[in-house]
Prior knowledge:
Elements: H1 3-19, E1 24-25, E2 29-35, E3 38-44, H2 54-65, E4 81-86, E5 92-97, E6 100-101, E7 107-111, H3 123-138, E8 143-149, E9 161-166, H4 173-180, E10 190-191, E11 200-203, H5 213-236, E12 247-252, E13 256-262, E14 266-268, E15 275-277, H6 280-283, E16 286-289, H7 292-301, H8 303-310
Parallel strand pairs: 1-6, 3-16
Antiparallel strand pairs: 2-3, 4-5, 5-7, 7-9, 8-9, 8-12, 10-11, 11-13, 12-13, 14-15
Helix pairs in contact: 1-3, 3-5
Amino acid sequence: xxxxxxxxxxxxxxxxxxxxxxxxxxxxxxxxxxDLGVQFEVRLCPAxxxxxxxxxxxxxxxxxxxxxxxxxxxxxxxxxxVGDLEDDGGTNYVVLLNKFxxxxxxxLLVTKEFQSQTSPLMPPDLVQTYFLLAEARKLGKQYFAxxxxxxxxxxxxxxKHIQFIPVHDKNPPIExxxxxxxxxxxxKPFSLTALPYAHxxxxxxxxxxxxxxxxxEQVLSSAFLSLLDLVVSTVRLDxxxxxxxxxxxxxxTLEHMHLIPRKQDVYTIPETGYKVSVNALGFAGMLxxxxxxxxxxxxxESVGTVLLSLGLKNVHNTQIGDITAEVx
Length: 328
């Protein structure tokens, strides 16, 4: 299938899978929480307290142990299998609906041949992600993509998979901050200096959709590598970073690519003992709680405190030679 055919099939496939009971949808409400100049969205979903978690918890443990429990091994559930994609270079992907959905039309781009979720995104991954986002916009739908890389990123499955969710306000909250940045230089990474934690961004050229596929691949790959260099150097500057490969989150829209280094995936609120699990969505400005009590505790603790504890300190002043500055 083509990216356009995939995107055109998602909504009907989601409805069918939900109606036949193969996909579980958890309704939720959004509560706004302003912090650090960002209108964070905290999604309250009491139904998640009843979600079957054994499979996800087992997968997380297997990632940490270095062994494999792969929920994306064929044969695929036909109700969740949207279709297949093949990159021009021969990389094959399967597109699956998320079995446990908080948002309608949440889908995954998964490598058919096993690749580890601890491995970086490769050029075909980036290109197919961009094409899916671009086709969605052509059809009047707004998505963004995210990738949880590494043990401390919030990843829940060992096989490489990029996730896509629709946004009804056109952008995830953190993208609003990125779009507002007034840059001295347009073709270098920049840091969101309003945030106390490291969060690196690359702004794509306005003409990117009109580029050839080879040129798009070049731009996306260069952006990813320049951001990854900043993540790695930030990790090296933290003497308390846990051993092993760096963990980080990736956010991709049609305008920007974001990389955020991670040190932990769960924050425990000291006063209550509530545990807040955060993956890339949290650093996109979208967090999740399961009860009103957790919501109140998170708001009291502040989202900024949680994200700073799970990420790394913003060291953009140390690295100013590698990134462009925001114009005051």
